[in-house]
Amino acid sequence: MHVIADICIVPMGVGASVSTYVTTAYGILRAAGLNATLHAYGTNVEGSYEDVMAALKRCHEALHAAGAPRLSTTIRLGTRVDKSQTMADKVRVVVEAAT
Amino acid sequence: MHVIADICIVPMGVGASVSTYVTTAYGILRAAGLNATLHAYGTNVEGSYEDVMAALKRCHEALHAAGAPRLSTTIRLGTRVDKSQTMADKVRVVVEAAT
Amino acid sequence: MHVIADICIVPMGVGASVSTYVTTAYGILRAAGLNATLHAYGTNVEGSYEDVMAALKRCHEALHAAGAPRLSTTIRLGTRVDKSQTMADKVRVVVEAAT
Amino acid sequence: MHVIADICIVPMGVGASVSTYVTTAYGILRAAGLNATLHAYGTNVEGSYEDVMAALKRCHEALHAAGAPRLSTTIRLGTRVDKSQTMADKVRVVVEAAT
Question: Which of B14, B17, B72 sits opposite D10 (nearest CB)?
Fold first, then answer.
């Protein structure tokens, strides 16, 4: 099952600035080969359901190990069986239509 | 890794009324032993990360098999290592403080 | 525009336990007359778009005033024009079909 | 109250392909002067709370008028009072640290 997902991990119980945690998570998602693309409120990834969920678990484990006592993550997760579609496809069709 | 999660699966490309799909997903989450609790905009579940993610995958597979060409799911996912906490704990402490 | 929403406010930069903040927000949503219903990972509310968004703003203002330097909120927001539907309707139809 | 938000509007009860709806919403967010930045699973915006929420309401109204009987939107909404921060700041600090 191929998925396109958007992941935002929020560390709680640490300071208000969490960029070091976000950087760690982003590195794990990139290292997992998920075509990770950072934006201002999360990271887009695409791949198999198992690969995405395994990488997300490693993010939680790594951020807890780095000192975050609590994490609250939000995920958007899209699957479709009518056609195959990449993250780049999704962005391109809107940008082309909008311009 | 124990997680408390909240899952909302939105079927696309079918009619505006999706309760049959929601009922199917809710049944899968309950059958998985995840202490699934339905509310008006999703379902709370708790269990191991692997069990929750395996059940969610079965939901996507079942809803596609039932005719939904596309699914857009949102998940809130909480983990903490400072103490153990159940879904019932989370609700009780607020309700008691609020009354 | 009538909306059914689900709101989860996550305080950052404070301790890992945030129930006092959640209690404050829940009280504001209830006082706003939004039929607020707490669950283990957020609060369901229903009302006019303006009333819901005004109450959510008051939550952010109150939690910052209470000491949270940063807040990360997630909202699910549903509107429909094909029929009117309450939060209780949404839950009832699934629970009846599931049992 | 300045906010950084991420908005994903999901049309229900129409076909599985919804790019025309997404294009309409993206155009409304851009026209509102919210520094809207599209990604593969939503759009980043920043501005005053009132401006963001007013633009989002116009998106819902426009998509319903365009034929979508039902919409399910997810929003991430961030506010902070410890320092001012733009969307570009958030991305830059992570990208610089990650490379």
Answer: B72
